[in-house]
Write a structure and sequence with these properties.
With about 120 residues, the protein is mainly α. Helices cover about 65% and strands about 0% of the residues.
């Protein structure tokens, strides 16, 4: 039997593919719960940072970078929107930021299901 990089034994834990699915799932739960389960999004990013080195050179490396970038850019725009809410424009920009984050999660997760990277060339 030929084993690829993505196979795993029962004692090794989930495969890289399953871990990326888990990261997207946690991130989605954190965002779609309107912050109630925000720790799930944070857990997704922590897991992405922890597994980043293991996935270098694989198709999953692009997904790890995608998740990390989405988190940090999303956090930046949500923080700026919170400041902007003091002058009543932050609510609109906050909504745009949340929609952008949901779009990025969906695009990345669909690309993962298709076995591709979120961006061509990664």
């Amino acid at each position: 039997m030929i084993q690829g990089d993505d196979t795993h034994d029962m004692d090794k834990g989930p495969s890289q593919r399953q871990l990326v699915h888990l990261m997207y799932g946690l991130f989605a739960v954190g965002i779609l719960s309107a912050g109630i389960f925000g720790a799930a999004a944070l857990a997704a990013v922590v897991l992405a940072y922890l597994k980043r080195g293991d996935m270098v050179g694989t198709v999953y490396a692009g997904h790890i970078d995608w998740i990390i970038r989405t988190f940090w850019w999303g956090l930046l725009w949500l923080a700026l929107s919170a400041l902007g809410s003091l002058i009543f424009v932050g609510f609109v920009t906050g909504l745009v930021a949340v929609i952008w984050i949901i779009y990025r999660i969906a695009k990345g997760w669909l690309a993962h299901w298709a076995g591709e990277t979120p961006l061509p060339g990664l």
